[in-house]
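Homework help board

Subject: predicted structure for assignment chain

Our instructor gave us this sequence and asked us to write out the predicted structure in token form, then describe one feature. I got the tokens but I'm not sure how to describe them. Can anyone check?
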Amino acid sequence: MVYNELGKTGMKLSNLGFGASSLGGVFHDIREAEGIKAVHTAVDNGINFIDVSPYYGHYKAETVLGKALKEIERHRYYLSTKVGRYGENGVNMWDYSAKRVTDSVYESMERLNIDYIDLINVHDVEFADLNQVVGETLPALIELRDKGVVKHVGITDLQPENLKWVIEHVPAGTVESVLCFCHYSLNDEMLLDYLDFFEANNVGVINASPFSMGLLSQRGAPDWHPAPQPLKDACARAAEHCAAKGYAIEKLAVQYSTSNSRIASTLFSSANPANVLKSIGYVNDPMDETLVKEVQEIIGDQMRVRWKNT
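My token output:
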């Protein structure tokens, strides 16, 4: 496992991080005991960065993760969770007010069985009024940082231009990291266009979803995936090409997304311990550079296609 610096936070994150969304049954129902074992498997095999949100499974992911973390020494992992996006009884909700995000931090700590949070993120800022994020949400989190309740503050979004806008409109040092998903993968390298900006502002970068929410998998994108059909078709052809070479596209996808040392960590999610071990094994194997080029040629012009978060 390779460990990379996250900006100026002092944290060195495993280049493969554990995304705990699957513990909330976001993708399909899970067996809780198996999900807890998946967390232990990740940490026992070198992953030291875990990311979650109260939104995942509408608080379920944090609750299940908290049961796992009770049995793991606190110094063995960095924990990231989020504020601003929630849900209840199957209905999504957003609240970026200072009071709600402050309360949310303490509620998350209780569910997670921890007494501080390494990294707190404003979740999916594209759903917020960015001016509220700048003028109200982030200042509330900075107060908690000053108190030591949280160690570091970040923001997340699918659209990197929103992350850039927020950083440009807050005092230096307010935002210490960004998390962007689906934009550093075999089918999309948009995040590369923003790395110089983030580094110039001492902001660390976290990537997520090396499978591009299922596009880069043998199973294919789920029906709800917001990508246009031509992109889905191109990724399906790429998966078939990899299979013909005896190389799972999932393996290539994980290897590619974790290969750039300018990106501290790439998050993947699985509640299956065997799949966790498999992904860790992918990272430790050499990547087929020729196959990367072949896959990206197959996807071609579709690599710059945008889609909206849902």
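Reply (TA_rk): Your tokens look well-formed. For the description, you could write something like this. The domain at 3-221+249-287 is CATH 3.20.20.100 (TIM Barrel). That's the kind of observation they're looking for.
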